[in-house]
Write a structure and sequence with these properties.
Blueprint lengths: L1 H12 L15 E6 L4 H23 L7 E5 H7 L1 H6 L5 E3 L7 H9 L1 E2 L2 E2 L2 E3 L20 E5 L1 E2 L10 H4 L4 E2 L2 H13 L4 E5 L7 E3 L5 E3 H8 L7 E5 L8 H9 L6 E3 L7 H6 L6 H14 L4 E8 L6 H14 L3 E6 L17 H24 L5 E9 L5 E5 L5 E5 L8 E9 L3 E6 L1
Parallel strand pairs: 1-2, 2-3, 3-6, 7-10, 10-13, 14-15, 15-16, 19-21
Antiparallel strand pairs: 4-5, 8-9, 11-12, 17-18, 17-20, 18-19, 20-21
This protein binds 5'-deoxyadenosine and iron/sulfur cluster.
Length: 435
């Protein structure tokens, strides 16, 4: 979603004469679009800011003698607000993920000097208007485009900052989404990934005036001519619904790959996390999806070392990983986040235990991922090529399961679904030959 937001910020500023620079040194405005999900991401913001401060100084002392405005957007901006300008006084502007549609206006305000000094802007409002109504229609798109359909979260998992930084759940009206999807396809998108923090909890106004589920919406999106692939992320197990299982059964453009975070394989920890479902319920969802679409594969998120997690709980997580046989997954050490209930618990797990458990979870996940990738060898897969490889005349694309495939070729092949015979399966990618 941050990638989507970043593209939208660029789209918003384009009519005001701004364009993207290749390096920070060339920028009159530097915008950090930040993530607050774990402490590591937040630390990165402050080290990036330190680097930008040096660039700002260098620009002022160099021949060009031009200032660089520094802005912090995204969830760290939302969570920290004016504290950022106190810790980093060279920051000119702070804003959150729900107010970036006002960027042109905020930048114009910054240009006005007050008594020779720039006024600072801190905008962490959750405005009454929806930012989506103010985002411009893009004139360019990647082959594989993002489309935000839902934002925010009302679930309040005890470890997570998202409900505080992105705000309450909001679903865009279906008509707006379908119009945006059609436009993206008309300017070259072949694949669309629908985005939302709880994307399968989508409940926007339908074209018939009734509330639509994500499943319902997918049926209409599948009617768009030229849209070859549809994905959605990220989902919550509680929000799986019958129309969505049906969509997986009926819609061939809906890719057979689903990211469905489970976080832990222990009922005790799931309960402590306030996930509102248990392991058995998760497994039943997986079964239903496999019944709907037998070639579906799964990805997930795992948190290790959540407060009070025992060795036994951890073993239950490994057991769940093996039982489902995830094709891929992300795993993290639990990171206490200010203001969340879990951060105040006295049963925090020592760092070295978290590190050991993370290594074990990752070993298990990597082994499964390699086996999944190796199981593709000898198969012919459809690959959507969309980016340049490391070397000239090398291109990279994605299979239905989001595996990267590298091939000799050039950018004239971008946007095509090509049949590739897979010769090798590696840890993170596949290689093969174009048929
Ligand atoms: N510590 C570690 N991981 C976290 N996530 C969210 N909050 C935290 C936290 N405090 C992970 C979850 C979520 C993913 C986006 O980030 O696994 O699904
Ligand atoms: Fe965070 Fe997802 Fe839980 Fe919402 S459902 S609180 S976004 S982990």
């Amino acid at each position: 979603m941050n990638v989507y937001d970043g593209q939208k910020m660029a789209d918003l500023l384009k009519p005001h004469g701004y364009s993207i620079t290749e390096s920070a040194e060339d920028a009159d405005v530097a915008i950090l679009n930040t993530c607050h999900i774990r402490e590591k991401a937040e630390h990165k913001v402050f080290s990036d800011l330190g680097r930008l401060q040096v660039v700002k100084k260098d620009r002022l002392s160099a021949e060009i003698n031009r200032d660089m405005l520094i802005a912090v957007g995204g969830c760290v901006g939302q969570a920290e607000g004016a504290e950022i300008t106190r810790q980093a006084p060279y920051v000119d502007m702070v804003f959150g993920p729900q107010s970036y549609h006002r960027l042109p206006e905020m930048l114009a305000q910054l240009e006005h000097k007050v008594k020779g000094k720039r006024r600072k802007i801190v905008n962490t409002d959750f405005p009454v208007e929806s930012k989506f109504d103010f985002l411009p229609t893009p004139d360019e798109t990647p082959v594989s485009a993002f489309l935000s359909i839902q934002e925010g979260c009302d679930k309040f998992c005890h470890f997570c900052v998202v409900p505080y930084t992105r705000g309450a759940e909001y679903s865009r009206p279906a008509l707006k989404i379908i119009q945006e999807a059609k436009h993206l396809v008309s300017i070259g998108a072949k694949e669309i990934t629908l985005l939302g923090q709880n994307v399968n909890g989508y409940h926007g106004e339908g074209i018939n005036g009734r509330e639509w589920s994500l499943g319902r919406l997918l049926y209409d999106l599948a009617e768009i001519d030229g849209l070859k692939r549809i994905r959605y992320t990220t989902s919550h197990p509680l929000d799986m619904h019958d129309e969505l299982y049906d969509a997986h059964r009926d819609i061939k453009q809906l890719m057979p790959f689903l990211h469905l975070p489970v976080q832990s394989g222990s009922d005790k920890i799931l309960n402590a996390m306030n996930r509102k479902h248990n392991v058995d319920e998760y497994l039943k969802i997986i079964e239903k999806l496999r019944t709907a679409r037998k070639d579906i594969a799964f990805s997930s998120d795992f948190i290790v070392g959540y407060p009070s997690e025992t060795d036994l709980d951890h073993k239950d997580t490994i057991a769940l990983i093996e039982k489902v046989g995830f094709a891929q997954a992300y795993s993290f050490k639990y990171s206490p986040r200010p203001g969340t209930p879990a951060s105040a618990l006295l049963t925090q797990i020592p760092e070295d235990v978290k590190a050991q458990r993370l290594a074990e979870v990752q070993y298990s996940l990597n082994t499964l991922q390699l086996a999944f990738n190796e199981s593709m060898v000898g198969q012919t897969m459809e690959v959507l090529f969309d980016r340049q490889g490391k070397f000239p005349k090398q291109i990279i694309g994605k299979t239905e399961y989001m595996q990267s495939v590298t091939l000799d070729g050039d950018c004239s092949l971008f946007g095509n679904l090509l049949k590739v015979r897979i010769n090798n399966g590696h840890g993170n990618s596949l290689s093969g030959e174009y048929i």
